[in-house]
Design goal:
With 413 residues, this protein is an alpha/beta fold. The protein has 17 helices and eleven strands.
Length: 413
């Protein structure tokens, strides 16, 4: 079968999503995997339809680019959850679903008599995925939060910023707190679906946004909890207890690049040395001798040796500086391509527009043109976040208009 004809991993799965800011990305990913995702909005549309930016800077119910991005490939039905009849319709819709996805305040749905305990009692095979700031249990379950406070209290903000600590910590853009929680929600939903295939039973999945953010801090949480040490922010590299070597470099065409992780194996040192020779830079690099020592290593350097073993420290440092030296003497793209060809992980510090224009991203199909037949135009969207040839992730259609698929509800009557 051709790639476009293959089903997605979740083809045949129905997801009922209660429209919410924190869970929207999870629904988008499930839809990209092939699930039929029905987003339930209040009459008149969910409030995120009012989020900027708007198409051509003109506000409108169907013109929010935020809504377009997070709800692409979904279907929309409208229900008033304060209305008894509409709550009954919601219950009927849930009865046809494999997964319910929501990010409501803990207790709100229970007060309406339509929470997971009630609906899963009638449908034990149902998987219910809930994203909340601190989970449904515990002393903080009723605390409110936004993406900023998820990242701040969860820890990533402390880990992100610059070497100059006079500059405040930096929050990652693009709803990273909500997106991190959504990724855990998607992984959990997939796991629950696999478990249901074996047991016949669904389950309640309780995702804490703050916990999800915290476990992504890598060294930050581990150092604090295990060693009682506090990591410090660094420019363009992982926060660490002790400062690490600067990794950013300015290419000859004035573009910043990140030199990635330095060589540690004999193979990598040999590759860097050979690259410098090809570029005619070896004789200009004063520490080339240490690269030659690195190319003769019998075992890979270990980070624990750096700062403890003088020879290993010198070799490690020379590898780092050699890659930076190369970056400073070629264009950003030449550096990127040259490193990729040699199996070295580096990157160009791109603007969003430059990411979409890069031939590597274009070749893997990351920018996708999506037709908006209602506007007589197509627009560039971000495509698959990963490549799975046998169960492709794909965008199927534009985001829905308010209540565009209410015929689904009519069919339940």
């Amino acid at each position: 079968m051709a790639g476009n004809d293959l089903p997605g991993a979740l083809e045949g799965t129905r997801v009922v999503e209660l429209a919410g800011e924190a869970s929207a990305f999870a629904g988008q990913m499930l839809a990209g995997m092939g699930a039929e995702v029905i987003v339930v909005e209040p009459p008149g549309g969910h409030h995120t339809r009012s989020f900027e930016p708007f198409l051509d800077n003109e506000p409108g119910l169907e013109r929010s680019l935020w809504w377009w991005h997070y709800n692409v490939s979904k279907l929309s039905v409208t229900l008033d959850m304060d209305d008894d009849a509409d709550r009954e319709r919601f219950c009927s819709l849930v009865g046809t679903a494999d997964v319910v996805l929501e990010s409501e305040r803990p207790g709100r749905l229970a007060d309406m008599g339509i929470d997971h305990d009630v609906l899963r009692a009638d449908h034990p095979e149902l998987i219910w995925v809930s994203l909340t700031p601190f989970g449904h249990s515990g002393p903080r379950s009723q605390e409110e939060s936004i993406d900023l406070t998820v990242l701040a209290a969860g820890g990533p903000v402390w880990n992100c910023g610059y070497d100059d600590h006079a500059i405040p910590p930096q929050r990652g853009g693009g709803n990273q707190g909500y997106q991190t929680g959504s990724i855990f929600a998607v992984l959990s939903a997939q796991t629950a679906l696999l478990a249901r295939d074996r047991t016949g039973h669904g389950q309640f999945v309780d995702v804490s946004l703050h916990a999800a953010a915290n476990v992504t801090t890598e060294f930050g949480s581990v150092q604090w909890l295990v060693a009682g040490a506090e990591v410090q922010r660094q420019t363009g590299r992982h926060a660490a207890v002790e400062p690490t070597t600067f990794t950013r470099a300015l290419s000859v065409d004035g573009i910043d690049v990140n030199t990635g992780f330095p060589p540690r194996s004999a193979r990598d040192f040999g590759v860097v040395l050979s690259w410098m020779e090809v570029l005619g830079l070896k004789d200009q690099f004063e520490e080339a001798f240490f690269l030659e020592m690195g190319a003769a290593l019998e075992e890979d350097l270990h980070l624990s040796q750096v700062g403890q073993d003088a020879e290993a420290t010198a070799i490690f440092g020379a590898g780092r500086e050699a890659v930076r030296f190369i970056a400073q003497n070629v264009t950003a793209y030449e550096f990127f391509i040259g490193a990729q060809e040699r199996g070295l992980a580096v990157g160009i510090i791109y603007s969003p527009e430059e990411v979409l224009a890069d031939p590597h991203f274009q070749e893997r199909g990351f920018p996708v043109e999506v037709e908006h037949e209602d506007l007589g135009r197509s627009f560039t969207y971000l495509g698959a976040p990963y490549i799975a040839p046998k169960s492709p992730y794909r965008i199927r259609h534009r985001a829905p208009h308010v209540g565009e698929h209410n015929h689904i509800l009519e069919a339940l009557s």
